[in-house]
Amino acid sequence: METKSASLIHGSQIIKFNNMKKVLFLACLFISTLLNAQSVKTITLTVSGNCEECKERIENAADIKGVKICTWDSKTKVAKITYDASKTSPELIQQAIAAAGHDTPTKKASSESYKKLPNCCRYRDGKCEK
Ligand SMILES: [Cu+2]
Question: Residue 87's domain is classified under what CATH number?
């Protein structure tokens, strides 16, 4: 008789434990969603360039894995970049932009990639004449 009631209690504890697991699972899901939202960041970088063609080149170059939006302003030379910090970093983004021939605050474009720019876009030699 005693053992029967003991096992009944034990049974309800298992049910409680299973519910606990569900609650914990949902809590983890919720927390990871929150953390994910926190990993999305926006930075502004000064990127050298001249014209609308540069704009297209810079924005395309910055479109690497983890980058959500990049907009570059040809007047202010400022790129506004929204990215997922769990997938990429400002360092990687600047590397990609520099590889396309445009200087960023921490990465300078190599002379090889700079030379690939059309004449109009060669910001080191002056402004676009268009
Ligand atoms: Cu240009």
Answer: 3.30.70.100
